Amino acid sequence: MTATLTAQEQTLLPRIQHWIEEHREALIADLASWIAIPGVSQADQATPGAPFGATCAAILQHVLQQAEREGLATQQHDGYAGSVILGEHPRDIGLINHLDVVPAGDNWTFPPFELSRHGDFLIGRGVADNKGPGVMNLYLLKLIRDLGIPLHHNLRVIYGLAEETTMDDLKWYAQHGPVPDYSVVTDGMFPVNNAQKGQIAFSLRVPDAGLLAGIQAGVASNSVPAFAQVALADPQPDELHDRLAILQGIAASQVTLSHQGEQPVLEARGNGGHAAFPDGTVNAARVLLGGLLEMELLNERERRLAVFLFDFFASPYGEHAGLGLEDAQSGRLTLNAGVWRSAEPGTLTIDCDIRYPVSWRGEQIVELIERRIADSGIYLREGWRDVAPFYLPEDHPVIALLQQTWNDVTGRDDRPYAMGGVTHSKVLPNAITFGPGYRRTPENTPYFLPEGHGFPHGADETIHLPSLLEALPTYVIALVRLDAFLRENEKG
Description:
The protein is an alpha+beta fold. The chain has helices spanning 7-35, 54-69, 131-146, 168-176, 237-244, 249-254, 284-294, 300-312, 362-373, 397-410, 465-469, 471-491; strands at 73-77, 81-86, 92-98, 116-118, 121-123, 154-160, 182-185, 188-189, 193-196, 198-206, 216-217, 223-224, 227-231, 255-260, 263-269, 273-274, 326-327, 331-332, 334-344, 347-356, 379-380, 385-387, 390-391, 417-419, 431-433, 436-437, 462-464.
């Protein structure tokens, strides 16, 4: 496609690039200060004014205070979110971020809550999801202000604090506002996202699980666990080493034996990552189950349960669980067993995450799960949670505007895409996910990290700084165009 940037837009691009170069190091320093405050959302630690716990409250106040020092207006939203605003107009265009992150998890080679820099790469929990884009949005407001780009709407950056858990942050905001006419959610890949799968969070209860009740793995249901362990009881060390020696396949290299005092502990390694993007991940809990089965360390009931679970979670696309679903609008269902824990004596609890195609309903998926686990001795716990799919057709005017902007700025001929990732588009009206994530190439892939590292929700979460900064011109052009489109429709 031939680029169709206007003469005014073409003149603006070199000014934007010059501004970016002048502010690059300051942006990195600010991101470092954001990464240092974990901000793991914990509703069970709520206090007045801090519904998601102390660290989320701390990162929000840090960001709002920084914005105020930059001369930007801010608003507090009862601790559920905070806004940074540029402009003094009656209506808003939103830019949506979240400051909460998933827990660090295991297997990092860099410190998770300290920003590390390796050439053009930045490493730390949240650099990609979603603090790096969050810092970029703050700088986007400063850029538009400094270059004197005229708009007829305010730009309102809304920072949420519970996107990685329940999305109660912007569910609250959607009810209490002010809700922008349209919002751009900067928490996905480029180009524009027009379909997001539904999400079901549920738990399996495995009573009378014996040895399996001691399995520990994972930090969040929407993250693939990279490490798993279980304490063993009777076998002698020599016997255990003999049984380890017979392991084959992935278990041969990823299952090891350690000790906690005198007690032997079987450990397994996998490749962690985001539950919605499972390619290249390996669930460490399933590797551990395989090791237990091969080493013949289970009694008959334990073995039967382990075989069922090993098969049920055999594919991240749910085929062995009776969930091999797919549609043309959004692709394949994904299934993840994210947290393995003992919530009550003798019982294993597995917290799971499903992303299902937009043409299905949550109740249908749950019915399929119940059908598959019937007579297995495993039960679906009450209280499963469903976040319905998001879908807009490709010819929706704002979808088309954002997509055309991406193609014009990049010279590409891409189309909108669907994904399993869930963003605030699900809960905030007229909110469309649009970047700033990027497709991996040899140039922007962190070659220095172990295989399977560097992804959001995984160990050594990484962002390629030039790719993040390249998003700024796209956003400026998109916001100018969206501002003009909304103004014309308001006149009409």
